[in-house]
Amino acid sequence: MSAAIAESPTEIHHNESRSVAPAQASQSAELELSIIIVSFNTRDLLRECLTAVQKESSTLRCEIFVVDNASSDGSAEMVEREFPAVHLIRSDVNLGFGRANNLALVRARGRYFVLLNSDAFLAPGALVRAIRHMDANPNCALGGGLLVGRDGAWQPSARSFHSITGDAIVLTGLAAKFPHSHIFGSFDRTWADARLSSSVDWVPGAFSILRPVALRQTGFFDPAFFLYYEEVDLCLRLKHAGYSVWYWPDVVITHIGGESSRQLKTLDFSSTAAQVVLWRMRSTLLYYRKHHGSRARFAFWMERTLYAAAMLRNSFTNNPERLVRKQHFRAQRALLLQAWKDTDGGRTSPPRPW
Asked: Is the pTM of this model over 0.90?
């Protein structure tokens, strides 16, 4: 079954996240889970994801939603053809991660909501364990699991909230150089034992299980964030409402995406890489302005200063590799300036699709 949703790209304000509340979502005793997957041109991965979801949810009372973000690869048609029991919601425009999830959240009726990336695959028992953890901890509004790659390699699965100092540590490479340090490894919690459950600041959006009653207090995802920071913002609002966020290592999810955006080696203004970096920068400024006010300007100047220093460090040389790095950081600085202009210093989210 499918529903078509037409969205015109209009300016989105931060407080729109409170415009809908899951007032009826937690009232049903018939469904244990509402599983929501947002997809954008990931047809083959989406098929694999849905196959795993159906297998893992076969012993549970569930409903499954797929929100298709105007894919051009036949993703929506594949869902209609091969997974007729799935509730398909089509958008005529790419709404981004948060706002697309909101389309399904307003319809969800499960006792808990599960959000899953289309490139994320549930390990055996993941859903049952997640439900048990939520049942055992009624103050937990949102929980996440252990993210691993296809090769079983650990991915950052629980993180600390952003700060200007913390972001500077990541951008300078100190976090990667000293991962076991409580100071330098703070953001990705690389100092922590990944085998231990823990109350954390936030978990990545590749997988999460949410408590509907908590969302009634905070609202859904803030639609101002097109991509990046939407789950950070939601977790911060949940914590401000008095709830906790947890990481559980026995809830295992294989995640293809990983940290690929951090490993981009080249950058030019026409590339997909540059587009993704620009999205991250816009969301950074929106987040800091929303939660830290004038500190958005400090975050901007910190990042801009780091790029300028990196350009200077790679100047006055004939080394081709260092000259390439100089151009890379020059492009980063230009993108940051563009992000500041696009968002009016973090005050306004540009019309979507970004």
From this structure: no
What pLDDT is stored for residue 1 in this prediction? Answer: 67
CA–CA dist 243, 347 (Å, integer)? 27
Per-residue b or e along 308-318, where b marks 16 or more CB atoms closer than 10 Å to that residue's CB = eebbeebeeee
* Torsion-angle region of 284 (φ positive above 0: left; ψ -120 to 50: alpha; else: beta): alpha
The rounded distance, in Å, linking the Cα atoms of 181 and 160 is: 14
Tokens, residue 187? 């953001």
How would you class 337 by CB atoms within 10 Å of its CB: exposed for 0-12, middle for 13-18, buried for 19 or more?
middle
At 201-236, the pLDDT tens digits run 999 999 999 999 999 999 999 999 999 999 999 999
Chain segment 248-265, per-residue pLDDT in tens? 999 999 999 733 333 334
Spell out the residues 6+ positions from residue 129 whose beta carbon is closer than 8 angstroms to its own.
Answer: 248, 250, 251
Number of alpha helices (DSSP H) and beta strands (DSSP E) in the chain: 11, 10
At residue 31, the 3 state secondary structure works out as coil
Q: Tokens representing 124? A: 């055996």
